[in-house]
Amino acid sequence: MKKEQYLGVSVSPLTYDQIITDMKTRIQRGEQSTVIAVNPEKVMTARRDPLVKDLINNSTYQIADGVGMIIAAKLKKGELKERVTGVDMMGRILQMAAAENLGVFFYGAKEATVKKAKENLEATIPGLRVVGYENGYVKDQNALLEKIQTSGAQIIFVALGSPRQELWIRENMPKLPEVKVLQGVGGSFDVYSGNVQRAPEFYRRAGLEWLYRLMKEPKRLKRQMALPKFLAAVITSRGDKK
């Protein structure tokens, strides 16, 4: 699968539909796939943290969850053309799961949040089978793994925050051979539960979801400073896209 690299971090230049098509082929072949969201903040973290870089680069699909990645692709004449956000990728995978009759498991967040997300998604996606869920505060990991295995889940969404969720996936994927798709989804359960409101469609289409979130949460300004630092590093880098 072709990948592009920005500051040494891999990104999949694929659309939602291309990822789903490829993912279905991998499922049919019995192969496991992982999905990780990549944004400028995470790339800058990966530059100073080899573990984060390794987690990203060894994933199957590194989705461009950030307008900064699209700007970087334009600067480097890459093939990456559109954002593929973590929350929307989760939605597309859920639609695929319903269409293909694949069992889904949710792990992470607070009990009320993950339960409400499950209920809302079951109510809005006809045919969706959420075969189990567990909050992110469970202590007995062996019991959790047994619960996932006995549920018959083939897809699991893990909401523990990054990089904890990616570490969990890497450690436990070999123990869950029947699970074919694993995605770290961060705060997506909060969105699907209704606890957090996404930016209006106008902001999302314009690639300004970050601005809307900043207006809502000014304390995010420090995190948003990763964007200009990332773009400056991309501009001065050489031969770092392929």
Automatic annotation (TrEMBL):
Pathway: Cell wall biogenesis; teichoic acid biosynthesis. PANTHER family: PTHR34136, UDP-N-ACETYL-D-MANNOSAMINURONIC ACID TRANSFERASE. It catalyses: UDP-N-acetyl-alpha-D-mannosamine + N-acetyl-alpha-D-glucosaminyl-di-trans,octa-cis-undecaprenyl diphosphate = N-acetyl-beta-D-mannosaminyl-(1->4)-N-acetyl-alpha-D-glucosaminyl di-trans,octa-cis-undecaprenyl diphosphate + UDP + H(+). Its EC number is 2.4.1.187. It is an enzyme of class 2 (transferase). HAMAP family: TagA_TarA. Catalyzes the conversion of GlcNAc-PP-undecaprenol into ManNAc-GlcNAc-PP-undecaprenol, the first committed lipid intermediate in the de novo synthesis of teichoic acid. One of its GO terms (molecular function) is N-acetylglucosaminyldiphosphoundecaprenol N-acetyl-beta-D-mannosaminyltransferase activity. Keywords: Cell wall biogenesis/degradation, Glycosyltransferase, Teichoic acid biosynthesis, Transferase. Belongs to the glycosyltransferase 26 family. TagA/TarA subfamily. GO terms for biological process: cell wall organization; teichoic acid biosynthetic process. This is N-acetylglucosaminyldiphosphoundecaprenol N-acetyl-beta-D-mannosaminyltransferase. It comes from the Bacteria. InterPro entries: TagA_TarA, WecG_TagA_CpsF.
